[in-house]
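anyone else get weird line breaks when pasting these?? whatever heres mine. first is seq + tokens for prot A
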Amino acid sequence: MLSSAPKPLDMPLTIRSLAFFAAFALPATLLAQGQESLIFELPIDARGAGLAGSVMADLDNDAHGAGMNPCLIDTAKQGELTIDYVDYFAGMGLTAVNYQLRPRSGWNLQLGSRFMNLGTFSGYDTSGNPTQDFQGGDQVIYCGTSRSLDSVWTIGAQAFVGSRHLNREVAGWVGLEGFLHARWAEQQLALGLVITGSGHQWGLKGSQPTGSLPHNVQVALTKGFNNAPFRLFVKGQHLEVWDLAPPGTYDDGMDPITQEVVANTTFKFGDQLMRHVTIGTALTAGEAMEIWIGFDYRRRIELMATDRLSGNGLSMGTQFELGKFDVRISRSRYHFAGASTHIGIRFNPRQFTRS
């Protein structure tokens, strides 16, 4: 039986969708960057972490991933609650909670929050004498929404308010993120255009600066296959700036004994390109189980210690069902001395209420 040809793209609709995304991206690109926060950078969901970065394009909706991209809100799982925890590094941790609301007037809705503990710091006075220790942290509360324009395109937006506190240092945040997502079911192809972290910071107390928050322009592509149990994920991030390498990365060195110049053999264009790219694959291992493997080149190259790469940049994880809970767990290798652990659960609170 002959299969029907795929429908051509609706060009006017495509142009309007791209214009929607540009309305978010262009103003943020023109503003100077301020202070960044890991609360916008870390992949919070275990699946996203296992695939080396937050999933911004997917063939299926996902209640966990919707916390970072409301275009992935799963309308078939209304009222479900997701809780994700990240054991990051040296006492730093991040917790995220996301709750999917009932759609209204064709708009999908969600509420959520993220809390990041920055750990304990040692206090000193102006003379360098130790004082009492103190803790710091970042907090964000957000409301996300998305709407399907047709069978392919979906637009989304997520507004957030938050703050940072470091003893007597306090800053407040307000921001709006933009999302554009396309999914071609017959071709098993998904595309995501995203700008996250865009907003403004006000220094409320202490020496915290006032200015725009650093944003992250991302493009993601996901491809599935009819006769293979896996999917491929590719994402380009921080596309608002080309060179992500630290200063001096491509400079020539000098031999400390002979004082001769040692040429830098790094392929500059390839290195600059790969610092934007994360790749991952998801392998289906049954109806309720999936295995993820991911690779982040930038994390690998920037966190190596004297060419000791080990498993830097690699991530892996899995998900499975445990009773009434959907459980996810993954590990992201940052350097030879440590890795972050991501744990997530999804459930419907109503299933525990008495009938």
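and prot B, same format (seq, then tokens)
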Amino acid sequence: MLLGEIMFRLHIDIPLVGSEAEASEVSKKIIDFLEKEKMLTLGVEQVNYRLGHDEDRQKSNYLLKNENGHVSNKKCHIYWL
């Protein structure tokens, strides 16, 4: 990226029905569809993602939980380079 260049971000909102465990499993499968070679061909070196909940006003990530079951507010990351 060049100095002063604007960076755009693609935000995709996929409604998932079912329990938290089911939504988590489906989310992981969707992320697995991202192919490293195709993403790098498009110039995408990194993907940040999280599983949220409509009633949760914070930006919680239900894919990241600690040993006490508390969710994180950090995104998950995939770095291809």
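btw re prot B: The two ends are 15 Å apart (CA to CA). Residues 56 and 66 are 18 Å apart (CA to CA).
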